[in-house]
Amino acid sequence: MSEKGAANNQSNFKARRSGTAVEFDSDEAVRKLVQSDERLARLIEQVGPFRLRLRTIHNPFNALARAIIYQQLNGTAAEAIHGRVVSSLRSGRVLAPQDVLDATEETLRGAGLSRAKAAALKDLAAKTVDGVVPTLRQLRRMDDEEIIGRLSGIRGIGRWTVEMLLIFRLGRPDVLPVGDYAIRKGFALTYETGELPSPKELTQYAERWRPYRTVASWYLWRALDLPRGDEAGNRKSRW
């Protein structure tokens, strides 16, 4: 990336920061990544400003319940089922753990949940009531791996789901979802490897991106949006 291009990029970041809501310095993150990785710097120049927007998190239970419901569904279908679950369990707009615990499987299935998702939602509710799921205040004081270890023990919640929580709900700066297909595909396209890196290979390479692997991840997702001559390159990323 040229010095002029980098300067223009940084000014764009500053103009947009008021609506970004991440709790780290995105300008500094981009500067460090540009300096540490020439290939990634080119991708950053192509994509433009870092525009990660955090999703509101009222409490971990609701965020994780939503994640369970949305798994393996397109956004429209998931949103409809989520709405039916909420409306079938209470008159308000926000689920509470006790609402889920009090609901019958028939009610949950009737709202559109699979048997596995209904069971996962029940487990999440029980572990929230028991204190296994931290409060939002507790989450903000915990480190990333501690959060992953605590939450990935919940039925239906794996490491990837928790990593998405860390990135898109908590705004953590140094998260790298190495098991995410789109991240690995974005890396293969950016670095022209011809094949997807293994999670181990990606983890090793990404050491140069610390402590801003979240920002690098966001740009690798964006790499799938760039126009390319082949079908694989024209796939749209999820984020």
Relevant terms:
disordered N terminus; Endonuclease III, domain 1; disordered C terminus; 14 helices; 59% helix; single chain; mainly alpha; 239 residues; Endonuclease Iii, domain 2
Q: What is the third-level CATH name, the topology of the largest domain?
A: Endonuclease Iii, domain 2
Overall CATH architecture of the largest domain: Orthogonal Bundle
Decide which structural class fits the backbone. Answer: mainly alpha
CATH class of the largest domain: Mainly Alpha
The main β sheet shows up as: none
Short description:
The chain is about 60% helix and about 0% strand. The chain is mostly helical and about 240 residues long.
Could you explain how this protein is built, in words?
The protein starts with a helix and ends in a 16-residue tail after the last helix. The protein folds into two domains: 3-54 and 176-234, Endonuclease Iii, domain 2 (Orthogonal Bundle), CATH 1.10.1670; 60-168, Hypothetical protein, domain 2 (Endonuclease III, domain 1, Orthogonal Bundle), CATH 1.10.340. Helix 1 packs antiparallel against helix 2 (26-36), helix 4 (60-70) packs antiparallel against helix 8 (115-129) and helix 12 packs across helix 14. Mean pLDDT is 86; it is low at 1-21 and 230-239. By secondary structure, it is mainly α. It contains 14 helices and no strands.
Give the SSE layout.
Blueprint (H helix, E strand, L loop, with lengths): L2 H14 L9 H11 L1 H10 L12 H11 L4 H15 L7 H6 L2 H6 L4 H15 L6 H6 L2 H8 L7 H10 L12 H11 L7 H7 L7 H11 L16
Helix pairs in contact: 1-2, 2-3, 3-14, 4-8, 10-11, 12-14
